[in-house]
Design a protein that fits this description.
single chain; 238 residues; alpha+beta; 5-stranded mixed β-sheet; 4-stranded antiparallel β-sheet; 28% helix; 29% strand; RNase_PH
């Protein structure tokens, strides 16, 4: 039995609340159970310097965790002068995931930054961030089209992410903190709405996992992504 009493293939309760930030061009408050992440998409009229003259835009992301998102206060990374290795890894992952489904030339030479701030953490913050970031980016593009800044929708597909793991010998979907901290294997899957794999991260914490177990985790992840994409479509009215 899982600590949350969920079935092995059952997501936590997921919500996607749009337009939660008055000033951002696109925003979404995403909840995976008790994990809550605020995602805001901001349009900048200039792209990065290294893309100047290319006619292509850029989508990037920044990630942070508020000091009391966890059981004990964590120090703000700004006080140390640079983001931690974990933070850099996650924000690069979010950016790669969004760019995988974005037609960058359709943006023009502009940049959109999606900020993902963890308000409360209970496992799966990076997967929640990616899922909510897509909604914020979608709404930013809708805002741009409504003002004739762009003429077509740059999004080519949905993208969402979910964690899976082997907990007490059983493959399970969408690990919360209690499971993540005790799992023998944990993995994160970033998958598009059409089923394309963007990124797979898997780690054995003790005993190595088998190829069959990896395929079972992938099967669980695909089912979870199908449900998450359905929630994204419902949230944006598709």
């Amino acid at each position: 039995m899982r600590p949350s009493k969920r079935g092995h293939d059952e997501l936590r309760t997921v919500t996607l609340e749009r337009a939660v930030s008055r000033h951002a061009e696109g925003s979404c408050l995403v909840s995976f159970g008790d994990t809550k992440v605020l995602c805001t998409a901001s349009l900048e009229e200039r792209g990065p310097g290294w893309l100047r003259g290319s006619g292509k835009g850029w989508v990037t992301a920044e990630y942070s965790m508020l000091p009391r998102a966890t059981h004990e206060r964590t120090r703000r990374e700004v006080t140390s002068g640079k983001p931690s290795g974990r933070t850099q890894e996650i924000q690069r992952l979010i950016g790669r995931s969004l760019r995988a489904v974005t037609n960058l030339p359709a943006i023009g030479e502009r940049q959109i930054t999606v900020d993902c701030d963890v308000i409360q953490a209970d496992g799966g913050t990076r997967t929640a961030a990616i899922t909510g970031a897509w909604v914020a980016l979608h709404d930013c593009f809708t805002w741009m089209r409504g003002r004739s800044i762009i003429s077509v929708d740059p999004l080519r597909d949905h993208v969402a992410a979910v964690s899976c793991g082997i907990y007490k010998g059983k493959p399970v979907l969408d690990l919360d903190y209690a499971e993540d901290s005790g799992a023998e294997t944990d993995a994160n899957f970033v998958i598009t709405g059409s089923g394309g794999l963007v990124e797979v991260q898997g780690t054995a914490e003790g005993k190595p996992f088998s190829e069959d177990e990896l395929l079972e985790l992938l099967r669980l992840a695909k089912g979870g992504i199908h449900a998450l994409v359905a929630l994204q479509k419902q949230a944006v009215g598709q």
